[in-house]
Amino acid sequence: MFICRIVILTLFGFASLVAQAIPNNTVFFCQHYPEAPSCGVGSVACQYCHVIAPTLNAYGADLKQDLEQFEEYDKTVESFSRLLPLSLPRIEDLDSDQDGFSNIMEINAGSEPWNDVSKPDPGEDLVYDFDFAFRRVGTTYCGQSPSYEARQSFVLKTDKKQELSRYLAQCLQSSYWRDFALQRLADKRIRPNLALGVDGDPFIIGDYNYDYRLFRHILTEGRDARLLLLADFHVAEDGSVTRDIIPDYRIPQKFVLGNGQPLIPTRRAGMLTTQWFLSSNIMFAIMPRNAASQAYRAYLGIDIAKSEGLFPIANEPKDYDAAGVKSPACAFCHSTLDPMSYAFSTFEGLGRRQGPVGSYNPNRTTWEGEGYLFNQPVNDLSDWASVAAESDFFKQNLAYMIFEQAIGRRPVTNLEQKVWQDLWQSAENDGYSFDRMIDRFVSSKVFGGR
Ligand code: HEC
Ligand code: HEC
Ligand SMILES: [Ca+2]
Ligand SMILES: [Ca+2]
């Protein structure tokens, strides 16, 4: 019963969104301003023009007022598509939020033209302050400020950059970082649910402690973060790495659907194929759209529900499960999402199945090999994971994780955008090591500038 409720809520959520929405505006805006920092993923959020849709913010209100000067404006997708390119330039010189910066200055700088607290930042005028950075490393990565003595001794060091790196390395070994900060980063990717996890009652659909251990293992000790999508191993409770199949085990009085790691190693794709990821995201779906969309959101940093990262494929969606996604309003997203989902369709969810939850069953569907990711054909999930792990999106997401953990949000200002860009573009040089990337970030003016 509880699971049906989740499914119905999800369906209901989307139906209501789609019935009224004009999600296309998020993309039209970026087609007009492809270089705008806020258009990094090819679309902006609804919040660019709305407080909560359909209520408009100050910028959206100015846009609406301009659109209404056209007689043919009728709020259809077609009229937005035709009229936005005419209206957008005409409100560029307005200062919708009255913060002293025109809309176009804010669009170009990546600040928010609807929010008078967000302004183009002074950027290069900042000066890197080692003492400030030293304290910030403490609070951000050790969970506490360095002691007075430690600060005094830091001030006397000649090579402050090296000393700062040394302190950071120490913090990245701390239990604060490993047992708390990294767990919080993992939460929204793993999406734990106590009621269904290893201590679930009465149903147990997966043990996400495996997920947390794997996540932490890969993002520490300088390991290659691409293992998030490529690992063919699990991390046992004692911290040891194993490629073994870990069978589910019975627990008296409980309905154990899964609490091991039954998938064969050759089909493993890191965080995407743990039993918990597969069971909690596939549930009873024959077409595992949620699994594909969560993989995209969690490890590539792009959210199709927000119209991000759309790479539509011709003649898709095929709509193999007759969900009604072929209509244009649905195909807008599902021509990307469904082909992304095919590779997940040969993994057992909770419904009728031939093997354990999360195991591989090549006969579950016949369309496994018809999938695409980023316009590239992918034969199976291993293929999917390799394409994903080598993508710029994957690097960008690592940089987002570091940024969000330290700053509390994604980069907005010009300087932040630049630092974020440098960070992800250096991922390969840094061997995809989360630790090394953090060290690079700490030496930036976003972290240590004042
Ligand atoms: C580039 C600006 C912009 C973005 C981004 C944007 N909208 Fe809008 N939206 C508008 C404008 C302008 C209107 C027109 C309001 C009017 O004329 O009453 C509008 C109208 C709407 C309406 C009301 C339609 C109606 O018939 O009254 C809804 C619902 C809506 N948007 C949803 C969304 C959603 C959901 C998103 C994100 C997926 C989004 N919008 C993104 C600018 C935008
Ligand atoms: C803005 C993009 C977007 C649009 C438009 C959209 N969807 Fe979806 N849909 C998604 C995403 C993303 C998911 C996966 C769930 C998630 O990640 O939130 C999804 C999931 C689904 C699912 C699977 C739900 C489940 O729990 O298994 C169905 C069915 C579905 N959509 C039907 C539709 C239909 C029908 C329409 C048109 C009326 C539509 N969608 C329009 C993005 C969209
Ligand atoms: Ca302004
Ligand atoms: Ca502003």
Plain-language structure description:
The chain is mainly alpha-helical and 450 residues long. The chain has helices at residues 2-20, 24-32, 58-67, 77-90, 103-109, 130-142, 148-156, 160-171, 175-190, 209-218, 227-230, 275-282, 289-300, 328-341, 381-389, 392-407, 414-425, 434-442, 445-448, and strands spanning 203-204, 234-235, 241-242, 255-256, 371-373, 376-378. The strands form three sheets. A two-stranded parallel ribbon has the order 1-4. A two-stranded antiparallel ribbon has the order 2-3. Helix 2 packs parallel to helix 4, helix 13 crosses helix 14 and helix 16 (392-407) crosses helix 18. The longest helix is centred in the first third of the chain and has 19 residues, at 2-20. Bound molecules: heme C (2 copies) and calcium ion (CA) (2 copies). The site of one heme C has 20 residues, from helix 2 and helix 3.
What are the key terms here?
450 residues; mainly alpha; two-stranded parallel ribbon; 6 strands; binds calcium ion
Question: How do you describe this structure in short?
Answer:
This protein has 450 residues and is mainly alpha-helical.
Query: What would you call the structural class?
Result: mainly alpha
- Coarse shape: flat
The average pLDDT value, as a whole number, equals: 91
Question: What number of domains?
Answer: 3
Question: H/E order of the elements?
Answer: HHHHHHHHHEHHEEEHHHEEHHHHH
Q: What percent of the residues sit in helical stretches (DSSP H or I)?
A: 40-55%
Strand order of the largest sheet: 1-4
Low-pLDDT runs: 1-21
Major sheet: 2 strands, parallel
Q: Terminal Cα separation, in Å?
A: 54 Å
Radius of gyration of CA atoms, rounded to a whole number? 24 Å
Q: How many strand elements?
A: 6
Strand content: under 5%
Q: Give the number of helices.
A: 19
Multimeric state: single chain
In this entry the ligands are:
heme C, calcium ion
